[in-house]
């Protein structure tokens, strides 16, 4: 009984009352320690970052000190050399003065007037003489020497100013990124050229920069080239002399009839144009279509704005606006009239302009953006910018092309990518990649199924619009080292693709097979623009040789039907040369009725040519920089121009007597 009373189970050991609270406090302490550790680590990272920044700043300060010390050394060296030259010049002046005194001693009969004559006959000696005045006969000599030195200094300063202006123009699209290009295109000197004839020469030319053989500045030293300096000085003196002679002749000549005044007017411009006009190879005329002999010679064509006072042009052959002037050819019956409709300002060089197939809209390409304008009222309707594109640096839209239905716009840019925009949704519908250099030109086929692109990578590509498949048209000739494709055009029937390239050749490929059909050779410099006529039987090309050429390509299809593959057998012939521009031809276009051909040039002018006679009808001066791109409306008489002056302009042209305002 007692054993049952006292029997019990072993109870678990009791936990002190404060043990649970101690564990909770321990956890809190651990959390606090962890938070402090994280804070210390964060502070340590910040300190390390600050230390790195400090070390970087210290390194930069040390480099600046080294540069400053080098500048001090250069300044001291310059002072020593300058002092040395001044001492030598002083010694030479003393020797020269002693020699003159000796000459006067041996020739006592030499009158002061004779001494002046000798000084005038030897300006180099007179310009350098700054010695002390040795007698009364030397006072006039020293005075003349000072005046001559002042004139030479003024000429040097004027030449330096011209060089600086050229240098600023070439670096603006950097410009300015027209280019130079630029048109220029232009251009336009953003994007340093890789070398003469390299693919990026298009930027330099379109932007208005100097040609490689006349660089105003040396790339290696950053100093002006002495050859360029001498050339500019000579041209400036010749220009001043011609202007002075012309003014003297006008002052002495009585005013006569208009024809005589016009003839005298061109006596002034003739020397300039002949000095810059290259000797071009002549192409034999075909028996069936003789090449027209233009009576409007280059020296008699509309003037360059820097060469002539616009007010001196016959009033009935001139039309002016607030900031533009149209010069009509007085040697042919006046057919055209022109007026300015719209001016669209851009933030950068306007590289390309293109009308939609119905002529209702105009698309322009500039830095990072394509703009679309309504031609009924001039309002901007869309701005297409790819937000996913790299934001560092420039991204010029080199070319734009409309789909025939007007729903899509293709853009080609410096990043080697073609973007197809759905205009209504303002988003990218398709991206085409494959080119390895900048894309310079695009064109749509008439049925809208194909897009043709040309690039500096020596290829043209034919893309299917609804896929990324492409056919590569390569320039594989071993002799064509610099053969970047600058311009492409697809024929109206969609059977052929024409491409102009830096190697002066226009090539034509078969769209279906991708085979090379024809090589058109005749230009003496890079071809920057090609365009088919509306009927597809003619092809127009514009070149840096300052000319346009009209090629008869109506036999291309027949050559293929005959199965001829001989490269020596040419089925296309140059039947017209258009000469008159004073600088590179950057863009060409044909009017919708094929009556007129229009060209834009680095000389800042736009010329209307009669397609039948190859004579200039009018020259339009309305831009302050290279005319990089032009386009004619396919349905109406509108002309669009894009320039390195960051403007796109729309002009309306028509027959004389028609209302075009």
Features:
661 residues, alpha+beta, Methylamine Dehydrogenase, Chain H, 6-stranded antiparallel sheet, 4-stranded antiparallel sheet, 9 helices, 31% helix
Topology summary:
Elements: H1 2-6, H2 19-106, H3 112-121, H4 123-128, H5 136-171, H6 201-205, H7 226-252, H8 258-276, E1 318-320, E2 325-328, E3 336-345, E4 352-355, E5 361-365, E6 370-374, E7 380-384, E8 397-402, E9 408-413, E10 417-422, E11 427-433, E12 439-444, E13 450-455, E14 459-464, E15 470-474, E16 485-490, E17 496-501, E18 505-510, E19 516-521, E20 527-532, E21 538-543, E22 547-552, H9 556-562, E23 573-579, E24 585-590, E25 596-601, E26 605-610, E27 616-621, E28 627-632, E29 638-643, E30 647-655
Antiparallel strand pairs: 1-2, 2-27, 3-30, 4-5, 5-6, 6-7, 8-9, 9-10, 10-11, 12-13, 13-14, 14-15, 16-17, 17-18, 18-19, 20-21, 21-22, 22-23, 24-25, 25-26, 26-27, 28-29, 29-30
Helix pairs in contact: 3-5, 5-7, 7-8
